[in-house]
Amino acid sequence: MKVLYTSLECYPLAKVGGLGDVVGSLPKYLNELGCNTEVILPYYDNDKVHQLVCEDVFSETINLGIHHYDFTIKKVISSEFGFQIYLVYQKELLFRPNVYSYDDDTERFIAFQLAILIWLRNQEIKPDVIHCHDHHTGLIPFLVSQVPAFQELIDIPTVLTIHNAQYQGWFSYDKLDYIPQFDLHNIGLLDWDQCINPLATAIKCAWRVTTVSPSYMEELQSQANGLEGLLHHEKDKCVGILNGIDHTIWNTETDPMMIKNYGDKNIVSGRKANKKWLCDEFGLDVEKPLFAFIGRLVYEKGADLLPDICLETLRNLDVNILILGSGDHQVENRLRSVKEEFPDSYNTYIGYDEKLSHIIYAGADFLLMPSRVEPCGLNQMYALRYGLIPIVRRIGGLKDTIIDIGDDGFGICHDQVNVQDVYNSIKRGVEFYENQKYYREKQKEIVKIDHSWNNSASKYIELYKSLK
């Protein structure tokens, strides 16, 4: 079986969030199980892409209304990824340093999808399944099933994975001419709330719809940014499959980004070495429990509450807090200001640093994830893998992966997203940390939890086979 993943992100070539991690690792595990999986994404203007050795395998032209854009499909010549990667090179629209947040994102995403399908219809050997990820490739199921120009692809099953339903790719009907000619009697497949909604379109047209955790699929029935009714209507073709993580990358014994590697036998000394480096680097006290946050500073992650959570905690508890992330500028500035009041027990790194994130996983004592929305969450799985205790809200994939220590589990859970609930959980964390024997036992327990892609990859293969 041959499966093509279409995505704007794929670690390490392009990553903004969890989508990049998934597309950069799941295909490798699928290939190991005998499912020939390939990935196609844009050719970005960044150092990692520039370093690739590629060969041109196809060239053609995209038409967006009256505008015409030449593109080239490049095949990556490398076995390091564990799967074949193709890149769409399009100078005017896709050859950009960033993945998102351009004024012409609608044009960029449509051009990317059209390039993929123009290439595929000209291939002698076509994929058995086209797997689309989020709204950026959400028009593909419609184009394949409704556009005569792609009738050669009409029998190829399409799968949509929703990584985050908050983002849907809406655009107005004045850009309808970007989409190749189709029967206008079927225009309702594009429409949702009087605009073109690529995510809604994909939910309607894809053969199967998956989300990145079972709980998130349930939650979308009642909270999906306007798509609740549609998802309820299409529920028979929907399934939640929990994401996994790549244990070859997230491996404490071999991770090259850590200060000191460790395994089961030296987990305590290894984590102490990484914690010491963090505390020395950020002016913190190594004897205090270290609470950390890693992620985007956005509303969905509960980041707007972080400044007040930090202040409430530091005014009442003898702990350290370290924040790594970027996003909302107001939140960033408020987080910086916390250091003025607590220079010896708090610090922040505004931005993103992959190496630093690995050291935090390897050295901090607790990871804060006060998310309002968390479709799956990978950070808590990385934390468990490294012996870091997660403090999470019971939502989405966090609910599926973290069991509270009060229920004989291995994390600390709360139900609401507010300062007091998170503070109370941190306070529980301090009490947990003070019982060092119990705390170390839990550390040694959680590093053995298997959240690799093996189980999830098998479920995806079952899904693909059911479409034949």
Automatic annotation (TrEMBL):
Pathway: Glycan biosynthesis; glycogen biosynthesis. Coiled coil: none annotated. It catalyses: [(1->4)-alpha-D-glucosyl](n) + ADP-alpha-D-glucose = [(1->4)-alpha-D-glucosyl](n+1) + ADP + H(+). Its EC number is 2.4.1.21. The keyword Transferase applies. NCBIfam families: glgA (TIGR02095). Synthesizes alpha-1,4-glucan chains using ADP-glucose. This is Glycogen synthase. The lineage of its organism: Bacteria, Pseudomonadati, Bacteroidota, Flavobacteriia, Flavobacteriales.
